Amino acid sequence: MNIRYVGIAALALSSSWTACGKKDNKNDYKNNLGLNGQAAATVTADFSGAIGVLVIDSSAVSGLRLQGASNLSLADSTGGSSASGNASGDGSLVKVGSDGEVKPALSSGTAKANNNMQMALPKVQTIAVSPSKEIYLHFERAFVYKNPENTADWSKVNDMANGYQCQIFKVTGGNIDELRVGTPPADVSNLECLDNQHFVDSWLAQRNSVFQFDSASNVYYPGSLPNGGGKMVVYKYDVLTKKTTEVINSNICVQDFLVTKAGGVFYTGTSSCQGSGSDAGGFFRYVSPTSEVREIARDWWNFVFEPVQGDTTDQAVFFGPDPRSATTASWNSACLFNFNPVAGTTAALSISEKITCGADIQSWINMTRTADVTAFGNYNTNSNNLPAGWVAEYKNRCTSSGQVFAGGGSQISSIKQDSAGEVYVIGRVRKKKAGELSCSLSVKGPHCVVNGAPYLPGQATYGSAALCQAAGGAWTVDEGFCNSPLTTRDACLVAAGTHTWNYREVQYHNVVSVYCGETAATNTNFVAPASLWNTVVSETESGAGTATAYGTTKFSRGWMNCQIKGATSSMGGEWTDEYKGLGKVKSATKTLELLSGTDEQAIRLWLVGDVPYYSTFNTTQGKYYLKRWDTTNSTSTPVAENFEAYNLTASGDDARLFYDGLDFSTNAYSFGTMAVAAPYARTIKTGLTGTVKTIVILPK
């Protein structure tokens, strides 16, 4: 997906909009610019010398966050003139030059009403840049952008269906490269109306952008008819044919949609506007570039998804309940999945787990997943003659700790993917506790028993009768039979003549022992369970008490079990501790790696040049941090301390980033640049009053 605006890549569901509204959108435009005026507005966008553009809401200067947006207040730290002081859209669009200077980017010769009062141009809500570097603007509401053919008949402009009003525009005069070096025309509008028949209702404009693009720069946007009762439709504007077509129609209440490079569309919504989520049949669907519709998953209210970057088959990573299950969607089955439409037409073929789900940790430990069977073979803990490699892996998975799982009641809130296909997530994840192996053991030969568990001869602490008894154990030698009527080992071996004491198997059940994870490859005393019964372990002595042969103690293992260390049961949610963290998908093992610390709660995630940055709150120190994950040495580095970041993006300079956020040390909101190398110096840009809604870096 080639979307070149900040804060909208992946269109996070945390700020999603819905078309299920009852509001009559006609009132949104009742007092639009020019309705009672004498001429259409002339609007000029000026991007000369710009390296970046900001969309500003100058009506919010108190520092309060705006609903559904990652915004912050920006004070004019110099006390000088503000970018919102111009008469062009209330300062809602400003440009940043290479020297960091902030200037207005919009000017207008506005229409005058009958009372000769100049009417204000609506604020800019969205700026977006297509892959072909063309700029698109979306205003807070529509305004009259062209005059009626009969200039005396201004009554026609009151009906929005007549096409004299427009809300979404393309900037003419060339692409970014040309606009950056050119001079916009004087007193002539350089905005071209994209669609004068459909309009974006105010409750659909809470996102950072309403525009999306495919690789051919076709434009996708939500819109509704003036008299359509508030029903929203997703449209596609073909830049070659100049035609607009429906992609998602008004019978569907769309919650969120994402466009792929190939022109496919992933979207979530319901078929009924009377509710949402599982009670109303919420679904996650895919529309192919050839307009075939596929239902990926349903009966859920909070799907989070991200198309696979750079993939021409329109694969997607998504979080939700398991679509392959016929049971009712539930938190227990929610997990991170991959959807590949070319893999097959059924859910079983097209959908696979991206990670091992939190509700299915036992299948990971027991190595019954498809990937494990492929790698280690189809075995279970009751199998005889288990391969050494299988046993070693099972033991490691049981006794180790720190592996991270998601799903099964843990919500993933953000999914990002870099150009190499590495997937990062933020959400509630589960970190595995250490386990311990228990098993059934059969032992032939002398050995020590301590707290019900056997220890073989030669073991450092319990390996002889004296050591065993000194440690409070019981040295076991009498489980066997003599080749004479004598019933005890001592009597057998000291009797006149030559006698042999043959050891029987001694059974131990549900014991925690180091021998549970042993094989013939790791312990020469190990014998396969099927062979132990005919393996002779004996001691032979003459009647004088002189040994002629001592048998080596042998053991075999029966079933195995893994349980939480120190616990009496391996059931329930005790296997993991839950954290709100930053995780990375480890594709080879289908697990997550927890990148953030266990003492912090990750909040937001950005990928800037494939480098992960995240905002987090450290619960031990009680501070916000902005951190970066160093993919080279796998470390998390603080970039800003006691600072809550809201927007972060490339600046056009590889050494710096644009940021905005709240500094808790001074209770000051700021916007500026931040160095990408230590000491991560920040430069505050001045001249702004309002809240930053979107930061757009104009590509070179």
Write the layout of secondary structure elements.
Layout: E1 42-45, E2 50-57, E3 73-74, E4 93-97, E5 102-104, E6 106-109, E7 124-129, E8 135-144, E9 165-171, H1 176-181, E10 191-193, E11 212-213, E12 219-223, E13 233-237, E14 244-248, E15 253-259, E16 265-270, E17 283-287, E18 293-298, E19 304-307, E20 316-320, E21 335-339, H2 347-350, E22 351-353, H3 361-365, H4 370-376, H5 388-399, E23 404-406, E24 412-417, E25 423-432, E26 435-444, E27 447-450, E28 453-455, H6 465-470, E29 474-476, E30 480-482, H7 489-494, E31 499-503, E32 506-512, H8 529-532, E33 538-541, E34 547-550, E35 554-564, E36 576-586, E37 591-594, E38 600-608, E39 611-618, E40 623-630, E41 635-641, E42 643-650, E43 656-663, E44 668-675, E45 682-684, E46 690-697
Antiparallel strand pairs: 1-6, 2-4, 2-46, 3-46, 4-5, 7-8, 8-9, 9-10, 11-12, 12-13, 13-14, 15-16, 16-17, 17-18, 19-20, 20-21, 21-22, 23-25, 24-25, 25-36, 26-32, 26-35, 27-28, 27-29, 30-31, 31-33, 33-34, 36-37, 38-39, 39-40, 40-41, 42-43, 43-44, 44-45
Can you put this structure into words, describing what you see?
The protein has 700 residues and is mainly beta. 7% of the residues lie in helices and 38% in strands. It contains eight helices and 46 strands. Strands 3-46-2-4-5 form a five-stranded antiparallel β-sheet, with no helix packed on it. Strands 23, 24, 25, 36 and 37 form a five-stranded antiparallel β-sheet that branches. A hairpin with an 8-residue loop joins strand 19 (304-307) and strand 20 (316-320). The chain is elongated, with a radius of gyration of 35 Å. Residues 1-37, 60-89, 113-118 and 275-279 have low confidence and may be disordered.
